Every structure is written in structure tokens, then in C-alpha cells.
Amino acid sequence: MTLGTILIIILVLVLIGAVPSWGHSRNWGYGPSGILGVILVVVLILVLLGRI
């Protein structure tokens, strides 16, 4: 596994944990999951371009 693949897997798991439907993150709103989603997209683009 490359570093990029590991980063994508970790970001997806964190993104799932930050979804507002879970009890512990219901009061957070969509901010954390939106920010993590943007980070996931950026990392995915960097992996596809071969930068990571």
C-alpha cells in the first residue's frame, strides 16, 4: 500500500465518523464533515496526479 492509499482510507473513516447522523457528532453540524470531504477530494486528486 502506498502512502496515498493509506491517507485516503484514513480520511474516509474519519469522514464517516464525522457525519452528523451519529449521536456523538449530531451537535457539530455539517462543518467537520464538509471540511473532511474537501480534504479527501484534494488528497484523492493529488494521488491521481502522482504527487503523493
As for the number of domains, it is: 1
Overall helicity = 55-70%
Number of strands: 0
Tell me the overall shape.
elongated
Taking the alpha carbons of the first and last residues, their distance comes to 12 Å
Order of helices and strands: HH
Mean model confidence by pLDDT: 76
Report the biggest beta sheet as strand number plus sense, adding barrel if it closes. none
Unreliable spans: none
Relative strand content: under 5%
Going by helix content, strand content and strand pairing, the class is mainly alpha
Rg from alpha-carbon coordinates: 12 Å
Number of helices: 2
Pfam families: DUF3309
Protein name: DUF3309 domain-containing protein
Keywords: Membrane, Transmembrane, Transmembrane helix
Organism: Aureimonas glaciei
Task: Summarize the structure in short.
The chain has 52 residues and is mainly alpha-helical.
Please supply descriptive tags for the structure shown above.
mainly alpha; elongated; 52 residues; 2 helices; 0% strand
